[in-house]
Specification:
Length: 460
């Protein structure tokens, strides 16, 4: 293209390969809504401040709305020689309404324009992401309430540790996703800051009204330094960082579901609609959805590292390197939205294998700690009680027995403080329900927590 908006300084045309290499339109065209929204607000401000005439502003706004319809109807032809979404829209505007369209760019630069567009885009997407997190949280709480009586092994080091309610286990992930929602809500405060008016890097000579633009666009704050405003992508980095933590939580849950659905564990069954088969092994039912979510976590981590690396050595203010901010950002948005949506649906369909779990919780000496606590309540120091129960466990392992299989006389070899009530004390159900403290796994506490969550959900 000969007549680029900056071509006055140049004698030669841009090399075709350079045009293709430097163009961002294949990626940033998805910002068209935000670009037009920001341009309309900027135009109205120019007219309000007397920088352009109101009649001109009306023509420009009508033209911009017409371009938005063209794009949404698939009639708009994007031109790679125009580099980005901003210049594609501006060129089309001038073609539609004539030279007056060129007045739109008064008192702004593509530098503050793109900073505005990304903030508007992220503000919208964070709102959608928070909604999706809320839906996932509701799915988890509903599953927890519906399966309140299921007991499962709790693990440390992936070794059976103590019995817990399955609902308690699920609510651990609820708390993780609650923190994720809080993080995105907090990120939103720093996203929702209006940079337009910073121009290229120094501000503008025109008597603009930045507060008016911020009001039109719903921004709560305005940037206070023009150089930082156009060179800042902290908000994008922070967003991807919060996304990486969210994906880490989804990946951990994925790992649990994958393990639990194996033949060896057999705790749950994933619905057929969220699994696939093998091209060679007829018996296979593969947990592809949680596996893919687990895999996509690395992709989001990579996006975070990519943007951090882009920004790590840039001098103020804008640099062309920053054009590389959009692909990792857009990919992160797409990945977490898809993952959250599919997870909410999948959680609703999971079936728990109750009989299998009833058998499993009897194994693994998971009430050994309860047995030690029993001795403590009989007057023994915990370390001594720990040693005695450890010896009892070793005796069971050597003789292929369970703690509940031992006779009272066998138990009294390890401590005379054992009485007949020990057998009721170490029942799995009693072990669970004795953890009757805030945050504990007792059914009473878990139901209380579910009620608290449900009440908060109704109020939000």
């Amino acid at each position: 293209m000969k007549n680029k908006p900056w071509s006055g300084r140049f004698e030669k045309e841009t090399d075709k390969l350079v045009e293709e290499f430097t163009a961002s339109i294949p990626c940033d065209k998805r910002l068209y809504k935000q670009d037009i929204e920001g341009s309309i607000a900027h135009c109205l401000m120019l007219a309000r401040c007397g920088i352009i005439k109101m009649a001109e502003a009306k023509r420009i706004v009508r033209g911009l709305k017409g371009i938005r319809r063209e794009i949404e109807d698939g009639k708009f032809k994007f031109d790679i020689s125009l580099e980005d979404i901003h210049m594609n829209i501006e060129k089309r505007l001038i073609d539609k309404i004539g030279p007056v369209g060129g007045k739109l760019h008064t008192a702004r630069s593509r530098n503050d324009q793109v900073a505005l567009d990304i903030r508007l885009y992220l503000r919208d997407e964070i709102g959608e992401i928070i909604k999706l997190i809320k839906i996932l949280k509701k799915s988890i709480v509903r599953k927890a309430r519906d399966n309140i009586d299921i007991i499962m092994p709790g693990y440390t080091h992936l070794q059976m540790a103590q019995p817990v309610l399955f609902s308690h286990y699920l609510l651990a992930y609820y708390d993780m996703f609650e923190r994720d929602e809080q993080r995105f809500t907090d990120v939103l405060k720093r996203v929702n800051v209006m940079p337009l008016g910073s121009a290229a890097l120094a501000g503008t000579n025109y008597p603009i009204d930045r507060k008016y633009v911020a009001k039109l666009l719903g921004f709560l704050q305005i940037t206070t330094n023009s150089m930082d405003a156009v060179g800042d992508r902290d908000f994008s980095i922070e967003f991807i960082s919060a996304s990486a933590v969210l994906m880490m939580h989804l990946s951990r849950l994925s790992e649990e579901l994958i393990i639990w659905s194996t033949f060896e564990f057999g705790f749950i069954e994933l619905d057929d609609s969220f699994c696939t088969g093998s091209s060679i092994m007829p018996q296979k039912k593969n947990p592809d959805v949680p596996e893919l979510v687990r895999g996509k976590t690395g992709r989001v981590y990579g996006n975070l590292m990519s943007l951090l690396t882009v920004m790590k050595s840039l001098p103020l203010a804008y640099n062309k390197d920053m054009q590389e901010d959009k692909e990792p950002l857009f990919d992160t948005v797409d990945t977490i939205k898809a993952s959250l949506l599919i997870y909410s649906k999948m959680i609703n369909t999971i079936k728990f294998k109750r009989e299998r779990l009833k058998d499993v919780v009897k194994c693994g000496f998971m009430t050994a700690t309860d047995m030690a606590d029993y001795l403590v309540m009989k007057g023994l120091p915990f370390r001594g009680a720990h040693e005695m129960v450890g010896k009892a466990v070793f005796y069971c392992i050597k003789n292929n027995r369970l703690l509940s299989d031992l006779t009272l006389s066998e138990l009294q070899r390890f401590s005379k403080k054992f009485k007949r009530d020990i057998f009721n004390y170490i029942k799995v159900e009693n072990s669970v329900n004795r953890k009757d403290i805030i945050g504990g796994t007792a059914k009473k506490q878990v139901l209380k927590r579910i009620a608290e969550i449900e009440k908060a959900m109704k109020c939000s």
